[in-house]
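Hello,

Our lab assistant flagged a job as stuck in the queue for most of the afternoon. It eventually completed. Since we weren't sure the result was trustworthy after the delay, we are filing this so someone can double-check. Below is the sequence as submitted and the structure that was eventually returned. Let us know if re-running is recommended.
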Amino acid sequence: MNLEIAAGEFIAILGPSGCGKSTLLRMIARLIEPSAGHIAIQPEERFQTAFVFQDAHLLPWRTVLDNAALPLELMGVPQAERYATARAALQQVNLFEAEDRYPAQLSGGMRMRVSLARALVTQPRLLLLDEPFAALDEITRFRLDIQLRELWRTRGITVIFVTHSISEAAFLANRAVVLTKRGGGIKLDRRLDLPAERNDELRMDPRLGREMQALLGAMEEES
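-- returned structure --
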């Protein structure tokens, strides 16, 4: 595989089950090392990368605010500063009023928003998401898609989003990469011809349908 991603891109990674999407994401995050080749992130900066997993992985004994502030606490940031930063991140995901609740008191969509806020508190330049909305109902997923796209637009970060959903990939990303079933190759690398603003009206737009059809064609060839 040879893949270059520019700063500020929103790229979706698709492909058949077992093709290596999550493995690729974990290698980019330095959670595992590649057996050959290399991954370069420029410029190299500490804490520049944040990872959102499919499960929210919240600590049940900590409040929403304390869960969101956890990365800053581990970095040794003073309490007043980390709480202020965590509250700002919760505000961005529309959870400011839930800061005193515990994970068991939250819906699945709210837990994922806490996970997203927790990823944002370190001001990452690169945000990696591994099917974060896969277990959510369709309406909640639609809302979080729009919210994630808006966060990307306002923060100017680079986003790499792994998903099985062709519709989600086309709606969210500016560029979509379909991996081959075996060998870690790239079947399709496509820049999506869609407007910068993504809203619910776009879901019925023929342009979105055309992009989905192109991605579906590549996926079907690999199934």
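-- support follow-up --
The delay was a queue issue, not a problem with the job. The result is valid. The chain has a mean pLDDT of 90. DSSP finds seven helices and six strands in the chain.
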